[in-house]
Predict the structure.
Amino acid sequence: MIEKIKSLSKDTLIYGTNTIVGRFLGFFLVPFYTNKFLPDEYGIITIIYSYIAILNVFFSIGLESGFMKFYSTLEVGSKKENFSNPYFIVLANSFFLSILIYIFSPELTRIFQVRADYAYLIEYSAVILFFDTIVLIPFAYLRLINKARSFAGIKIVNITLNVALNILLILYFKLGIEAVFISNLISSAVTFLMLFPVLKENLTFAFNKELVKELLRFSIPYIPAGIAANIVQIIDRPILKYLTDDNTVGVYTANYKLGIFMMLIVSMFEFAWRPFFLNNAAEPDAKKLFSKILTVFVAAASVVFIVLTVFIENIVKFDLPFNIHLIGKAYWSGLEIVPVILFAYLLYGMYINFMAGIYIEKKTKYLPLITGLGAIVNIISNFILIPHLSYMGAAVSTLASYFVMMAGIYVISQKFYKINYEFKKLASIFSALILITASYLIIEQNIKMYWMLKSLFPAAFVLFIYFSGIFNRNLLKKIS
């Protein structure tokens, strides 16, 4: 078991090192945008990208997950058939949808909540969606065959090119928000070209009717599930726009994106986790292994949470070169939502962990129910809370929906794939986290604290984890 946990840790770090580099290159655009664009301009960008996220589900139709499941087991068909059949379905579907969006872009401006003169941005979005979708299966293939470095390397090239083009087009060519979409489009097209050798190596025109049938049966539930999951992630911005204005959306989104620090941990884990549990599901100690991994994940994510909660204001307000900050001063009023978003992502990480049982037992039909419930909670709570709490209401709604999704997937997974999780240890971790975080927030309201004093709070939590007996110290040494 120790070796397997160590293996997962190494895979997570491989994905993580490259993912951190890539994410931070991408995150560089947040201070760049927030120092160059007014909040209402940034709000337009985020609204359109919110709808792009929803449309991604209709483009991929869940076949990325179906591909990973059936390619890893080869239950039906050959390797090339398991690659090619889902790929050609995704290619045809994304091409058809992109053409529709491009043609009807003027009519779609009202749905996208932008002015009619921004129709050209929707045209860019249609082409971006096409290129981003047709690389999903090649990227999933690299994950399955443990090509973590190739996977992350291509991602980094994509993000680096995107960042460089943004800087060039905005600073030199003065293109404004149009530059954001042009940069994305070019970098997405280049990514496809970089993955073309993967396509050339794996494509076949052989059609396997039984495989397609099984793929669709497994993957189709991901469409409503994916729509609901994306609603949880981005519907707060359109609702916030409807109830407030572009300025509020811009402030909220900029601070929401500071959750990237927790999202990095979850993303690192997710990239390594799915291939890991698929490859280890048949092992006799698999359930005990999965239980231990949840405890390790929650402890690590909790450390990240308390460190960022304590220091986020210092990080954001730190003077960077050229007299800029991590996010522009006009956005600082929204910093209060950051701890809420960080904790929401921690719960999402637990959701990812609990997903193993549904995936292994092919019970994906329950995913729409789970994510749909989270989406309903998100929408209702946004409409209730935003009029009273503004963007804090949107943040709390996100937290509530992730909690519902986490609880829902736990209940369903336990029904079909029961795992005895270490609940006493998890309760100890969360109790200490809540107590220390609450102590910091109460004291911070009354006393101005500097770095040295603030550091005592995360240090206290780390010492609690180390000396409380939650983990065997010899085990930690063997994993590290």
